[in-house]
Amino acid sequence: MHQDHNPGINPAPLIALTTRYWESQLFLTANRIGLSHLLDKEAKSTAEIAAALGLKPRPTRLLLKACEALGLLKEEPDECFANTSLTAAFMVPGKPAYLGDAVRYADNLYTAWGNLEQALREGKPAIAAESYLGRDEEKTRAFVYGMHNRALGIGNTMVQMLNLKGRQQLLDVGGGPGTYSALLTRQTPGLHAVVLDLPDVVAIAREIIGSMGAAEQVTTLAGDYKQTPFPADNDVVLISGVFHRETEATCRELIRRAADALQHNGLLVISDIFTDAGGAEPAFATLFGLNMMLSAPDGGVHADADVAEWMASAGFDSIQTLLFPPPMPHRMVIGILHSYPSESS
Ligand SMILES: C[S@@+](CC[C@H](N)C(=O)[O-])C[C@H]1O[C@@H](n2cnc3c(N)ncnc32)[C@H](O)[C@@H]1O
Questions:
Q1: Among 16, 34, 43, 84, which is disulfide-ready with 80 (CB 3.0 to 4.6 Å)?
Q2: Is the pLDDT of residue 54 over 90?
Q3: Residue ranges per structural domain of the chain
């Protein structure tokens, strides 16, 4: 038989890729059934865990051992299982750095990834965006609280990277849970923010903004950012996590309208997951583009260099791209409007 393979090439990367979803599904399931929540106060035996979560003992033992292997649990004396420091910090509801809602949002997209081929053939998302943007109450809450979980971590870095001192009025376009606005106004005395988002999202954002003690500094505007007129006279416009849902034409239009809504010396901040020029790096950003294709009609990923060019052609200057520190995959493209758009066009 003709042997055509090169003995110098190791297939290990391909073998590893074939089963990587095992780990994701294990973690998503552990989160969904509330495993770390159950183990918050004390370690429990397999039988106790199975009984409390309504599982059969034999598969539960397999699950717990795999969780132990992945660093999600540790085994203690008497064959009891406890959270590791990692899951105790991030996977127990009510903890300040809780990530379970964000994990749940990824869980809601698991089936969509299973339908990747169909989405590629049909050219449309595998799940209807309306379902998590208002139509399904539970999915919408999971989406908005998931964004909040993530934004708390990222936002605490964002406030250190952006100096808004002296600025007074922020418009947060597609501001979702309002977390960034709450953190930025907390960091910047005298700054007020308006969060523009869809009505059902804004209703949940009000709860979150209130729980962060920011109800006086942050107000909400229910609307559609493609149609609702932007409030005028801002000195900062933040557009975060929006461009990955939109086409180039819509992004350019949002930049143009942001320029119209900014005062002289106004700052535009566009924060998102972007690729490098060329679109093939970083790998996470390329996969994120597919994730957005599966979950939003115009979803994808843009290159930061393209966004910088769109901003320059809308009259912004002093344009810079700021990278969040690893492992955060986010980047910000920022620019200042030194002239009014009509002067530069
Ligand atoms: C990925 S989230 C980003 C939220 C937040 N800015 C952040 O960075 O965490 C995208 C947001 O855009 C909102 N959105 C999507 N389409 C919209 C539209 N047509 N008008 C207003 N908001 C919209 C969604 O409800 C969601 O809150």
A1: 43
A2: yes
A3: 12-95, 113-344
Q: Is 176 in the pocket of ligand 1 (CB under 6 A)?
A: yes
* Atom nearest to 148 CA in ligand 1: 9
CATH of 12-95, one of 1.10.10.10, 3.90.180.10, 2.30.40.10, 1.25.40.10: 1.10.10.10
Whole-prediction pTM = 0.92
Q: How confident is the model over 145-199, as pLDDT tens digits? A: 999 999 998 999 999 999 999 999 999 999 999 999 999 999 999 999 999 999 9
Cβ contacts of 327 within 8 Å, gap of 6 or more: none
- Only one residue has tokens 């089963």, namely 19
Residue 59 C-alpha to ligand 1 middle, in angstroms? 39
Single out the residue of 205, 182, 194 nearest to residue 133, CA to CA.
205
Query: Is 240 a pocket residue for ligand 1 (Cβ < 6 Å)?
Result: yes
3-class DSSP assignment, residue 191: coil
pLDDT digits (tens, 9 = 90+) for 253-309: 999 999 999 999 999 999 999 999 999 999 999 999 999 999 999 999 999 999 999
Residue 161, C-beta contacts closer than 8 angstroms, at least 6 positions apart:
322, 324, 332
Q: State the pLDDT at residue 189.
A: 96
With a 6 Å cutoff on the Cβ, whether 175 touches ligand 1 is: yes
Ligand 1 pocket, 224 CB below 6 A?
yes
Distance 103 CA to ligand 1 centre (A): 18
* 133 Cα nearest atom in ligand 1: 25
